[in-house]
Amino acid sequence: MRVVVCALALALAPLAASARQPGPWLDACRAHGEREIRRDSAAIRAVVFDQDRHLIHERHSAKIGSQAVRSILWGNGAIVYPKGPPIEMSFLCLLADEKRPLFFFWTPRRDAPALAQCGRVAGVRAEIGACLDLLLQTAESDLTQAYALQFQEARERDSGQPSEDATSAFRKAADAWRSYRDAECARRAGLPANAKGAAEARKACIVELTRRRLLDLL
Questions:
Q1: Domain closes at, from 56, 76, 109
Q2: In angstroms, rounded to a whole number, what is the distance separating the alpha carbons of residues 127 and 133?
Q3: Are 194 and 127 within 8 A, CB to CB?
Q4: What's the number of domains the chain is made of?
Q5: Given its phi and psi angles, is residue 65 left (phi above 0), alpha (psi -120 to 50 degrees) or beta?
């Protein structure tokens, strides 16, 4: 039901402008969203919204059922916990007026920059490194599970065949992708902008490309 409402809200919204001058709707939606999320996870420390070019506020005049919707806010942010990496998210908030949110929906953001994610809570380089290690461990574990399913499917396609073309193609693609990932992340780590944090830049790149690989397989 929530997905249907969100899709309807986005479909109703005309071309929006960036919310460069935040109003009361921003704090109202953030507080409402935090209350909603705390119902499922009381252990969270805070919910934050990113005030960047992705934050969009559009005044609108429409109804969903009998409820009037006067504006829509959407963008990116994070659910921050006392320990461990935050959960990066994209969110949508519907408002009856500037200070009265009606509905809040969020979904995990799988393409979030890893360094920015760890930087929300990590204050020193050692903490950022530990955070990146955890993100990489999670990303690699998720990818391993996806690879196991893909490998099983390849084996099933080869079952009863005189050759193992599907299995061989899968292995070749997996090896080629890993070689690309390692080479590309080594390249990014060597860029002048990363001179002081090459190790973190390389690890963040590996996290991001591993996440992207997983999305390609889903």
A1: 109
A2: 10
A3: no
A4: 2
A5: left
Are 68 and 100 spatial neighbours (Cβ–Cβ below 8 Å)? no
> pLDDT of 32-45, one tens digit each?
999 999 998 878 99
Q: Do residues 101 and 122 share a domain?
A: no
pLDDT at 149 (0 to 100): 95
User: What is the per-residue pLDDT across 125-173, written as a single tens digit (0 to 9) for each?
Assistant: 668 888 999 999 999 999 999 999 999 999 999 988 888 899 999 999 9
For residue 65 the two structure tokens come to: 């059922």
Q: Which residues, in sequence order, are bridge partners of residue 97?
A: 100
63 has a pLDDT exceeding 80: no
CB 49, CB 26: distance < 8 Å: yes
* CB-based contacts of 179-187 (< 8 A; 24+ apart in sequence): 181/206, 181/209, 181/210, 181/213, 182/206, 184/209, 185/209
Residues found in the chain:
218
Q: Could you tell me the pTM of the whole model?
A: 0.78
Are residues 152 and 60 located together in one domain of the fold? no
Which residues neighbour 163 within 8 Å (Cβ) at sequence distance 6 or greater?
Answer: none
**What is the secondary structure of 158-214 as a DSSP string?**
HTTSSS-HHHHHHHHHHHHHHHHHHHHHHHHHTSGGGTT-HHHHHHHHHHHHHHHHH
Q: Using CA atoms, how far apart are residues 19 and 27, in angstroms rounded to an integer?
A: 13
Last residue of a domain, one of 93, 109, 125: 109
Cα 120 to Cα 110: distance, rounded to the nearest angstrom: 16
